[in-house]
């Protein structure tokens, strides 16, 4: 996954968990409730009911998701991810009236699907057998022919694929606390309480040695997009538009 995408997700989790932005963490830490990344209506996990937090793979939950994925054939695209997500939302609402589908849930879940599609596949879709190996065995599908790419899933493309998935149903777009309809709505849900969030993303990327122009161009686009949307929709909270002085 492209470094700006990883940095936005990781730094958002660090801020939500109220730890220092230079904190070291293990992959397992990302599953902690304090990171606020996990969500209800998962493809593979039970809901967090009454504070009983769970992040383990649940076979019955995945079996229900897999039945829906199979209706799409051997290749899963953004619209299929959206249809399966709708099925999961409706199913969890029947089983758990307290199931949460707020803007945070909507944003993280649709971006999660887009990341999986673009990391394991392309804009056109991802092979179902690739997804199965990742979810069922927690293995990258190398033996099935998948190969890692140096550059994939840039944040701009993730947002486009996520929006495509949202168009499947108003159930996905209408959260309990607002509407999730476009790229800007998604950006707002992934924002940090840190007013200098994008500035910190830039600093992190530079300190890690990244210099590729496309990375910082993508961040510029997010900032410019926010500025346009603020003019159209008003000054709603979102990603800070400040830049490093040398940008």
Structural account:
There is one protein chain. The protein is mainly α. The protein is built from 10 helices and 4 strands. The protein has helices at 3-16, 59-70, 78-95, 103-120, 128-137, 155-166, 170-173, 183-189, 197-207, 213-233; strands at 75-76, 126-127, 174-175, 178-179. It has a two-stranded antiparallel ribbon with strand order 1-2. Strands 3-4 form a two-stranded antiparallel ribbon. A hairpin with a 2-residue loop joins strand 3 and strand 4 (178-179). The longest helix has 21 residues, at 213-233.
Strand order of the largest sheet: 1-2
List the secondary-structure elements in sequence, H or E. Answer: HHEHHEHHHEEHHH
Give unreliable regions as ranges.
237-247
What is the CATH level 1 assignment of the domain at 38-189? Mainly Alpha
Helix content: 40-55%
Topology, number of strands = 4
- Output the radius of gyration: 18 Å
Q: What do we call the CATH topology of the domain at 38-189?
A: Chloroperoxidase
Proportion of strand residues = under 5%
Number of helical regions? 10
Sheet having the most strands: 2 strands, antiparallel
Level-2 CATH architecture of the domain at 38-189: Orthogonal Bundle
The pLDDT mean sits at: 83
**What is the H level of CATH, i.e. the homologous superfamily of the domain at 38-189?**
Chloroperoxidase-like
SS-based structural class? mainly alpha
Q: How far apart, in Å, are the first and last alpha carbons?
A: 23 Å
Q: Judging from the principal axes of the Cα atoms, what is the shape?
A: globular
């Amino acid at each position: 996954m492209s470094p700006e995408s990883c940095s936005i997700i990781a730094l958002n989790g660090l801020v939500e968990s109220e730890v220092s932005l230079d904190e070291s963490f293990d992959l397992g830490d990302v599953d902690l409730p304090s990171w606020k990344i996990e969500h209800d209506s998962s493809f593979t996990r039970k809901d967090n009911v009454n504070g009983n937090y769970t992040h383990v793979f649940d076979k019955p939950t995945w079996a229900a998701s897999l039945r829906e994925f199979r209706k799409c054939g051997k290749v899963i695209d953004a619209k299929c991810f959206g249809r399966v997500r709708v099925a999961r939302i409706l199913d969890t609402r029947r089983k758990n009236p307290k199931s949460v589908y707020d803007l945070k849930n909507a944003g993280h879940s649709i971006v999660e699907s887009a990341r999986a599609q673009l990391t394991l596949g392309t804009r056109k879709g991802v092979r179902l057998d690739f997804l199965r190996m990742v979810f069922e065995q927690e293995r990258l599908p190398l033996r099935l022919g998948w190969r890692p790419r140096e550059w994939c899933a840039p944040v701009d493309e993730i947002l486009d694929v996520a929006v495509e998935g949202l168009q499947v149903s108003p159930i996905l777009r209408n959260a309990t606390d607002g509407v999730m309809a476009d790229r800007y709505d998604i950006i707002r849900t992934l924002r940090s309480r840190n007013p200098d969030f994008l500035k910190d993303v830039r600093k992190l990327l530079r300190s890690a040695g990244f210099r590729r122009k496309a990375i910082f161009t993508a961040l510029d686009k997010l900032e410019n997009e926010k500025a346009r949307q603020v003019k159209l929709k008003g000054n709603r909270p979102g990603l800070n538009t400040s830049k490093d002085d040398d940008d």
